[in-house]
């Protein structure tokens, strides 16, 4: 890592203390409820300054749009901060949507979850002889809710493109059964989500032997 430049929440010198808006003194972030409302009922906050929320521009845009619709359009829709497709654009991309496994365990309990995972590699890596089983895919399912997918993770080429498509399915209530019933496009990386059958709890080998 050459540079790891974070974002500072510049909230200490804009007069929030004058009207009584509370901030986290450690990082300057603003705590809000699920409607982006601060401790002062008529003051709302959106975007990167929110405590515990994602620092992503599309999230802020969506939250602001929904807030305006609630305040002035009679809507009741709130921003979903959980099922947000996210990608880290490293040379081998990482994409995710929903809960990370650790957070899912905290929220639902380990006994209520089933985690499916596998190693894989793109077919086009075969010709240049790149390492097999370098990529990884995982889904986290809630056993108490028809094995609904509450977390999806993928490490591989074009992970952002893959994650964006599955994010819509997760918003629609994607389940493991629906994934199993989906015909995969062969040979693609995303196809791996339609063929997963090894659970993490089984301890079975997840390396792949062929395409």
Tell me about this structure.
This protein has 211 residues and is α+β, with helices and mostly antiparallel strands. The chain has 2 domains: 16-73, 3-Layer(bba) Sandwich (FAD/NAD(P)-binding domain), CATH 3.50.50; 85-202, Enolase-like, domain 1 (2-Layer Sandwich). Helix content is 22%, strand content 15%. The chain is built from 5 helices and 5 strands. The chain has a 5-stranded antiparallel β-sheet, sandwiched between helices. The longest helix has 16 residues, at 57-72. Its cofactor is FAD. Residues 84-196 form the Pyridine nucleotide-disulphide oxidoreductase dimerisation domain. One of its GO terms (biological process) is cell redox homeostasis. One of its GO terms (molecular function) is flavin adenine dinucleotide binding. It holds the Pfam family Pyr_redox_2.
CATH topology of the largest domain: Enolase-like, domain 1
CATH-level-4 superfamily name of the largest domain: FAD/NAD-linked reductase, C-terminal dimerisation domain
| Helix count, DSSP H or I runs of 4 or more residues | 5
- Major sheet, described briefly? 5 strands, antiparallel
Whole-Å distance between the termini? 33 Å
Number of domains: 2
How large is the share of residues in beta strands? 15-25%
- State Rg: 20 Å
Strands of the widest sheet, in order across it, are 1-2-5-4-3
Q: Provide the residue-averaged pLDDT.
A: 94
Poorly predicted spans: none
Shape label = elongated
Structural class: alpha+beta
């Amino acid at each position: 890592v050459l540079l790891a430049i974070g974002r500072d929440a510049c909230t200490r010198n804009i007069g929030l203390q004058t009207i009584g808006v509370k901030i986290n003194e450690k990082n300057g972030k603003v705590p809000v409820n699920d409607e982006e409302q601060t401790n002062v009922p008529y003051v709302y906050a959106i975007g990167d300054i929110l405590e515990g929320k994602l620092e992503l521009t599309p999230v802020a845009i969506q939250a602001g749009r929904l807030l305006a619709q609630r305040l002035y359009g009679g809507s009741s829709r709130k921003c979903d901060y959980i099922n947000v497709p996210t990608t880290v654009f490293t040379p081998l991309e990482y994409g995710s949507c929903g809960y990370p496994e650790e957070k899912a365990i905290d929220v639902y309990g380990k006994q209520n979850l089933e985690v499916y995972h596998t190693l894989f590699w793109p077919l086009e890596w075969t010709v240049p002889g790149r390492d097999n089983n370098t990529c990884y895919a995982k889904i986290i399912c809630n056993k108490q809710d028809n094995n609904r997918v509450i977390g999806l993770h993928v490490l591989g080429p074009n992970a952002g493109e893959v994650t964006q498509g599955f994010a819509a399915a997760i918003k629609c209530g994607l389940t493991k059964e629906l994934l199993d019933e989906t015909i995969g496009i062969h040979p693609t990386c995303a196809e791996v989500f339609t063929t997963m059958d090894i659970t993490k709890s089984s301890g079975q080998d997840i390396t792949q032997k062929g395409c």
